[in-house]
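mind reviewing these C-alpha cells:
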Amino acid sequence: MNDIWYKKIVGARTIKTGLATFLTAFFCLALNLNPIFAILTAIVTIEPTAKASLKKGYKRLPATVIGALFAVIFTFVFGDQSPFTYAFSATCTIILCTRLNLQVGTTVATLTAMAMIPGIHDAYYFNFFSRLLTAIIGLVTAGLVNFIILPPKYYDQLDDSINLTEEKMYALFNQRMRELVMGKFNKGSTYHQLNSLLDLNQKVETLLSYQKDELSYHKHHNSEWMRLKSLTTRTHTNRLFITHLSNLVYLPKDTYVTFTKDEKVAILSIAQSIHKIHSSGHFERQPKSASLLKSTVKGLDEFDKNQLKSHIVYEILLIYRILNNRFA
C-alpha cells in the first residue's frame, strides 16, 4: 500500500506536472530566461505515458519553433501593436503545423507565438533563440520527469474497470433476457446502460494501451507482462460478449417473438447463471438449457417469420459459448 499512498490525495500525473513545472522554472531562471514559454511546454508534455511524452515531444519542439519564427517575422513586418501581427502569426502557425503533421504541437506553438509578440520589440534574434532554448528545456525536463518519476501503473484501475464492466454486462444481459421473454422491446434504460457499458469498455481499452506503452519503455519482470496479458484476454472476451449483447439490445422496433414455456425457462436459467458470475466468481453451466435452445434453432427456418427468433437464440448461444470457453 505504501507505493500508492499518494493516489488517495493526488494523482501521480499531477505530482509530476508540478515537479516538471518547478524544475523547468528553476533552470530557466538560473539562465536568466523567461520561464513562461518553457512552463507551457512542460505542462502539456506530461502525458499519461512516457512513450506518449517522448513521441509528442518530437513534434511539439519543431511546432514551437514555427510559432516563434512566425511571431518574429510578423512583428518585424507589422510591429507588435498591430492586430495583423497576431492574426497572421496564429493563422500561419496553424496552417504550417497542420501541413507538416505537427498537430499535437499546434496549441503550444500558437500560444507561444501570441505570448512572444508583446515582448519582442527589436530583439528579434535574441527572442527567437531564447524561446527555442526554453522550449527545449521544457520538453527535456518534462520528458525526463515523466520517464523517471513515478512511472504510471494502471493495473489497479484496469482491475476495477474490468470488474465493473463485467458486473454491468452480466446484469444487462440478465435484464435483456427478461425483457425478451416478456415481449418488451421498447427503448429505454437498456439502451442507456449499453451505451454506458460501451464507454466503460473503451476506457479499459485505453488504459490497456497506456500500460502496454509503459512496459515497452521500462524494464519489468515477466510477471507484469503476464498480468497485462491476463487483463488483455479478459478485455477481449468482454468485447466479444458486449458485441453479441448489443445485437440483442438493438432489435427492430415493435417486434415480438413467441417463445415456448420451456424456451423461456431455458433462457432465464442461462441468464440467471450468467448474472451470478460476478458474485460467485465462476460460471455454472446450464447444459440442458443450452441443448434445448440448440434444438430450437435447428427447427427454425432462418428465412421465414422465425428469422428474428433464430437470430436471438443464436446470440444467446454464442454468449454462452464465450463464457464456457473463458471459464473452461
